[in-house]
Amino acid sequence: MLKLDDPSLMKTQSFINNEWLSNKQTFSVFNPADNNVVAEVNNDSSAEVEQAIGAAKQAQKTWAKKTAIERSDLLMAWYQQVIEHKDDLAKIMTLEQGKTIKEATGEIIYGAKFIQWYAEEAKRVAGETLPTPSNDRRIAVIKQPIGVVGMITPWNFPSSMITRKAAPAMAAGCTLVSRPASETPLSALALAELALRAGIPKGVFNVVVGKDSKAMGEVLTRHPDVAKFSFTGSTAVGKKLLEQCASTVKKVSLELGGNAPFIVFDDADLDDAVAGALASKYRNSGQTCVCANRLLVHASIYDAFAEKLAKKVKQLKVGNGWDDDTAIGPMINHQAMLGVHQLVTDAISQGAELLTEAQTPNEHSNFYQPALLKNVTTDMSLAKEEIFGPVAPMIKFESEQQAIDIANDTRYGLAAYFYSRDIGRCYRVAEALEFGMVGINEGVISNPMAPFGGVKESGIGREGAHDGIEEYLETKYLCLGGIE
User: Fold this and answer.
1) CATH annotation of 7-256+458-477
2) 186: left (phi over 0), alpha (psi -120 to 50) or beta
3) What is the pTM of this model?
4) Is 128 a catalytic residue?
5) Would the keyword Glycoprotein turn up in this protein's UniProt record (predicted)?
6) Strand pairing partners for 205?
7) Which of 190, 201, 214, 325 is in the most buried spot, having the most CB atoms within 10 Å?
């Protein structure tokens, strides 16, 4: 049984208006490492979502009237609570999501940094005074909170995906209703408990949990009192939610799928590129939207890079996230693991070569051995689909332009990476890649101070940086006449 220093962080009920609401209907949360049930959680429905929206609406105007400094202080208190309890929060995450305890701790700190950053940004929201067409007028531009925010977050980063949305919304003066993935609700509920302890007023931060994602999502996207909707997840689901938001013309932020190219040019530092590929591809068992999805390697260094990377991949230990030497934890569930295995077997049947250990999936296990494949072609499903697992396909290219063309040949445009020591090439390739984020000689690029988001079918809007708080603000133009 999980032992927490503070067992009261293990919450299993929806959090609405600073109250924990009981419900006789529950659903099970499983540990993907052993498939054991770790908690029975409220199976709430659209009715609770509507209740939470009502609480958020009632609280919003009062929260918006607080000074920026007051909101900043409350967010900073929440940040301090999260940092103080980071070890327990990491344990909860490893239990329900499966990632290693080291990665879980890293995510808690990373997520807390968004609260800290936007606690500071709350004091920096500013307007403008503009030139006027005549002397009897003055023009001013002010920024105001958009109102109630609905948000849906995924299971792969169950803490930081919430703070990355909630912190800027709250800093701007918005209240919110968060619906976490049903695979990982415990991390979200623990954050709610810490928000309560930090003194966040009732109705400002609400969390609703339940299995009926379709019905709950319909309320968040169609309800007239929700002014802004934010979603992180698959492109297919994001498109559907965007359609639903159109019924009330909501402001929308979407962070959707990716198919990140990782390009290694012939002038790259191979050891650095191998380290970057490992960090980008295999963290969180390959279950991140910005993972390197396709390794594009110049023909002249293709075999040397493959040999170096294969050696490192074979050293990655697969196991329970609690073990200190585990590098690859379980995938989120058995269906996800089988989907990844199907992509691998399909590629091998078409001529791809597996450079790492082959495996036959265990029907009772969610673990998948990290894999590296060479001789992958661009028409294989492994190169076209988002893998979302610890599998890296290697594709050969001959020229800079060919690498760019292959990289851009996708409907996604979230993240891209490349390694080169040619300064001219760094500028040319970075500008030519059709992606919202580009890592140059770097495999891990996300941080609270930089705008996170994609182009094409990878989403709308940005999270992080100053851009992140703008997503929750409305611009109002004031024309003052009769001055003379």
Assistant:
1) 3.40.605.10
2) alpha
3) 0.96
4) no
5) no
6) 176
7) 190
The label of the residue with tokens 């490893």 reads 94
- Number of residues that this document lists for the chain: 484
Question: Per residue in 354-411, pLDDT tens?
Answer: 999 888 888 889 999 999 999 999 999 999 999 999 999 999 999 999 999 999 999 9
Distance CA 62, CA 128 (A): 25
* The residue type at 232: T
Question: Residue 1: what pLDDT?
Answer: 53
In angstroms, the CA 379 to CA 213 distance is 34
Phi, psi for residue 201 in degrees, rounded to 5: -60, 160
CA distance 124 to 410: 38
Catalytic one among 255, 463, 470, 471?
A: 255
Q: Beta strands 128-130 and 138-145: pairing type?
A: antiparallel
Instruction: Give pLDDT tens digits for 112-129.
Output: 999 999 999 999 999 999
Contacts of 11 (CB under 8 A, 6+ apart): 20, 186, 189, 190, 192, 193
Tokens standing for 256?
A: 């959707």
**What is the C-alpha radius of gyration for the chain, rounded to an integer number of angstroms?**
23
Which CATH architecture group holds 260-447? Answer: 3-Layer(aba) Sandwich (3.40)
